[in-house]
Design goal:
Glutaredoxin; five-stranded mixed sheet; two-stranded antiparallel ribbon; alpha+beta; globular; 23% helix
């Protein structure tokens, strides 16, 4: 286990997402292209062929991320047929494809699973905590960013039942062409690890 994941235990991986909202790159050529664990390539920020795109940023050994896997699968099954493209985005740059495939198998992910090795998506969307969910509209603009729901009141403080469902509600609003009532929420989880510095390389 890497030390960064221990941040979860000390409660310092809770953050309020900030920064300038991503408004969509000017051209498709400028969008990051990532290869999924199935060998196919994707441009997650290109939403022109979908009603919306949902990116869920995770760490493979973050308990909160893994605890949300069943809900993420249910949301994908519910909204996928309505034209919403879902992506799982691993933020650990050192994660191997083999380990990402095992993780997907263990947690039942059949949707595209990406490894953001260069933090291209992390940087573009200002992601600092996993799990963070992002909803992009067909225009490429961020419609929602933050937690999946309010299952966690704080680090180590799960509720018995979630009382708000921000990601689900945001997706429903976007595909119905309605404004998203809550467009940004505080995310509780594990800190996104830094990219390795040049001095870390052999």
């Amino acid at each position: 286990m890497k030390m960064v994941r221990s941040l979860l235990l000390f409660g310092i991986a809770s953050a309020l997402l900030g920064g300038t909202a991503y408004a969509g790159p000017a051209t498709a050529a400028s969008m990051p292209t990532l290869t999924a664990i199935d060998g196919k390539t994707y441009q997650p920020l290109d939403v022109t062929n979908h009603k919306a795109a949902v990116l869920v940023f995770i760490l493979q050994d973050c308990p909160i991320c893994n605890g949300y896997a069943p809900l993420v699968r249910r949301l994908a099954a519910r909204f996928g047929p309505a034209g919403v493209r879902f992506y799982i985005v691993h933020v650990d740059p050192s994660l191997s494809v083999a380990d990402a495939r095992k993780h997907a198998s263990d947690y039942g992910y059949t949707l595209p699973v990406l490894i953001d090795r260069k933090h291209e998506l992390v940087t573009a969307l200002h992601v600092g905590v996993a799990p963070t969910s992002i909803v992009l509209g067909q225009d490429g603009a961020v419609k929602y960013e933050g937690r999946i729901d309010d299952q966690y009141a704080g680090i180590g403080k799960p509720r018995t039942v979630a009382t708000t469902h921000e990601l689900q509600d945001a997706i429903a609003s976007v595909i119905d062409g309605k404004p998203v009532a809550v467009s940004k929420t505080r995310t509780i989880g594990c800190a996104v690890p830094d990219l390795p510095s040049k001095s870390d390389k052999p």
